Amino acid sequence: MIMSELLRLTDIAFAYPESREPVLDGLSFVLGPDRRIGIIGPNGRGKTTFLHVCVGLIQPDRGEIAFKGHPLGRREKDLFRLRKSVGLVFQNPDDQLFCPTVLEDVAFGPLNLGFSREEATERARWALQLVDMPGYENRVTHKLSGGEKKTLSLATIVAMQPEAILLDEPSTGLDPDSREHIVHVLNNLSQSLVIVSHDWDFLARTTSELYTLDCGSLRETDRGTLHQHVHYHPSGEVPHVHQSGLP
Fold this sequence. Notes:
Distance between the termini: 37 Å
Shape: globular
Number of strands: 10
Helix content: 25-40%
């Protein structure tokens, strides 16, 4: 075990009660500093389940989870330490945002970590600045656009200053401008990232490692496959050039 490891999953298995087959089966994974990992895979094969196991929202049926070199227990204080260092951004922002205003939503995490209201507010304003949402503090959360809610969900995690951020389908449902905004924000974060996405071009621009989750386990995948994409040219017969390395 390398002491710089943040999270290690070993031989993880999990099946939902209504399922005959395990969603995760023999899955192993290591997350350390300065890593930007993309995870792809077919629908219904356990990508979201994997993220939930990583932050203790789901307890595996088999296997071990180690946080900073120590086995992770089920006690609340163990999970608190984990979630302080590893934050999860849900696919649906409405699962993450529940306060009346933007500032209250972003300050909620720091308040739960024990910061004073003044300190939490300062952290919230800093996080909103970092995700390019200054001036949104008093906006009503439920009136924001889909892209704004996605960015705000990320800000709620950034405000807690975790060591790693896990994101579940962060580009789903975004218009081109909102998608570009999320790419820009993620590429300027210093934390390790684990991004689950079906958006291959998005992963090509935000991650440096690629894994496929299928048949219950993760396998490293050639990043060159990220550049295979299907697109539409309105003037298909006009000669054109694809520049190498660009989505």
